[in-house]
């Protein structure tokens, strides 16, 4: 049976582009999980999208490769040759927007640098960067967590791994921000064309420089893979470098920001963690579940017409998994709206699932753990330095993160 239309009332209640939803999506998620868990809506650009909100359904979509990532796989080779729309933008040439077998090849090229063992080797340096950032602020008695701490930490780390000069950081920060906020929003995509070009121009310069003067960094080893033959094409080289910079910019910052906010809102949990820092492992997982940095998965498309949970999803339509909704599903988590830093049963979806499971998860977990531990140790009387009502969440559906989080200590 095909259910395309939802009631008018439901549509009024579920405006995914509204500011109210952006500030607090959880009441809408709860309603959708209960009343219409595979919900068809119209996005800002006019295309239909299916919003999947229950945990079990989210896992099914993420693990089912019939929900494809590369929309050019929907058309024939002949159409690809003649259709200009089939030309891929820079991010489409990455593992995140590829299906098998390309996905395996593209992920394989960088996987080695992100194994838990390799990442554990960065612990000392990440602690050093964390302490350096706090040294600069400690005397002031206050800071703005996002800009002073949560943003620079992961950026310095990914830039050092890749070999991006640290003095260029601020230059591409705003590009990266606008690109992510414009996701699935055509009006903004027009506006960000300029930023996108500047960003690609920057990557171009960086790669040209490294070609002439290779270093012991990830960009140089990717250039080697590209130059050595059929492992990586030039557009794919641009793609992977851009993807890692963006992923390093836009995600861990929200883990740190959202996690600190959760602790400030739950002083009993903050106290527990201060008393027993060895709880940090479960606490990081709980921050990821409670207010996950990536609110919706990236785009998936029905690779064929699919019957899914009583709905018929036509071939080629967009499917989005609401990760932050799945992680508050009461059928999966006991008391899902309660923050419990000691939670044991916590198979959250903050890093996704299936073949696109986050490559950077070990790095994000390590950075998050070090950031929370160091902050609580050095600034034990951390407190919010603004009216809680004034906190604003960044626009855009993809990410869930605060614009600013002023604290005093
Ligand atoms: C707390 C921080 C992070 C969160 C919550 C997060 C979340 C995610 C999620 C949900 C996906 C899957 C998206 C989908 O299936 O549609 C993903 C994929 C990915 N993430 Fe992360 N991420 C984080 C940090 C990072 C970092 C630090 C890096 C690397 C520097 C990174 C690199 C990637 C890459 C390359 C993919 C694509 C994997 C693939 O397609 O096989 N992530 N991430």
Topology:
Blueprint: H1 8-13, H2 19-23, H3 26-35, E1 38-42, E2 48-52, H4 55-63, E3 67-68, H5 77-82, H6 102-111, H7 116-120, H8 123-135, E4 142-144, H9 145-150, H10 152-162, H11 169-181, H12 186-212, H13 218-227, H14 234-250, H15 252-265, H16 267-275, H17 280-290, E5 300-302, E6 306-308, E7 311-313, E8 318-321, H18 323-326, H19 361-378, E9 383-384, E10 406-408
Parallel strand pairs: 2-8
Antiparallel strand pairs: 1-2, 3-5, 4-10, 5-8, 6-7, 9-10
Task: Outline the structure in words.
With 409 residues, the protein is of the alpha+beta class. The protein has one domain (8-408): Cytochrome P450 (Cytochrome p450, Orthogonal Bundle). The protein has helices at residues 8-13, 19-23, 26-35, 55-63, 77-82, 102-111, 116-120, 123-135, 145-150, 152-162, 169-181, 186-212, 218-227, 234-250, 252-265, 267-275, 280-290, 323-326, 361-378; strands at residues 38-42, 48-52, 67-68, 142-144, 300-302, 306-308, 311-313, 318-321, 383-384, 406-408. The strands form 3 sheets. The protein has a 5-stranded mixed β-sheet, covered by helices on one side. Strands 4-10-9 form a 3-stranded antiparallel β-sheet. Helix 17 (280-290) crosses helix 19. The radius of gyration is 21 Å and the shape is globular. The model is unreliable at 1-5 (pLDDT under 50). Residues 95-96, 107, 154, 158, 243-244, 247-248, 251-252, 255, 293-294, 297-298, 323, 350-352, 356, 358-360, 363-364 line the site of protoporphyrin IX containing FE (HEM).
């Amino acid at each position: 049976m095909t259910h395309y239309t939802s009631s008018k009332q439901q549509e009024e209640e579920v405006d995914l582009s509204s500011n109210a939803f952006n500030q607090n999506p959880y009441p809408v998620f709860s309603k959708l999980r209960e009343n219409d868990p595979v919900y068809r809506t119209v996005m800002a650009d006019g295309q239909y999208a299916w919003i999947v909100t229950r945990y079990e359904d989210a896992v099914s979509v993420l693990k089912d490769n019939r929900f494809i990532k590369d929309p050019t796989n929907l058309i024939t080779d002949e159409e690809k040759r003649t259709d200009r729309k089939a030309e891929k933008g820079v991010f489409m040439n990455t593992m995140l927007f590829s299906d098998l077998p390309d996905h395996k090849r593209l992920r394989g090229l960088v996987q080695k640098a992100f194994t838990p063992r390799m990442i554990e080797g960065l612990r000392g340096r990440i602690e050093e960067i964390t302490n350096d950032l706090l040294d600069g602020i400690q005397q002031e008695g206050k800071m703005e967590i996002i800009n002073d701490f949560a943003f620079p930490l992961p950026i310095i780390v990914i830039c050092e791994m890749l070999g991006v000069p640290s003095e260029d950081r601020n230059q591409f920060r705003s590009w990266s921000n606008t690109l992510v906020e414009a996701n699935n929003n055509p009006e903004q995509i027009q506006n960000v064309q300029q930023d996108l070009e500047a960003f690609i121009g920057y990557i171009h310069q960086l790669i040209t420089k490294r070609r002439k003067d290779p270093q012991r960094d990830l960009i140089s080893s990717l250039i080697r893979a590209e130059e050595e033959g059929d492992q990586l094409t030039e557009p794919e080289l641009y793609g992977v470098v851009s993807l890692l910079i963006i992923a390093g910019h836009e995600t861990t910052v929200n883990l740190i920001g959202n996690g600190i906010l959760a602790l400030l809102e739950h002083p009993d949990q903050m106290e527990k963690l201060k008393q027993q820092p060895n709880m940090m492992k479960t606490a990081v997982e709980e921050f990821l579940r409670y207010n996950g940095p990536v609110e919706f998965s990236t785009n998936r498309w029905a690779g064929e017409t699919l019957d899914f949970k009583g709905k018929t999803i036509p071939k080629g339509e967009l499917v989005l998994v609401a990760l932050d909704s799945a992680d508050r599903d009461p059928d999966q988590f006991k008391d899902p709206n309660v923050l419990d830093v000691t939670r044991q049963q916590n198979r959250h979806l903050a890093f996704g699932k299936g073949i696109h499971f986050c490559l950077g998860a070990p790095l994000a977990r390590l950075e998050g753990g070090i950031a929370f531990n160091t902050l609580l140790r050095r600034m034990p009387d951390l407190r919010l330095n603004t009216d809680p009502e004034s906190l604003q969440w960044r626009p855009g559906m993809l990410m869930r993160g605060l614009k600013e989080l002023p604290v005093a200590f």
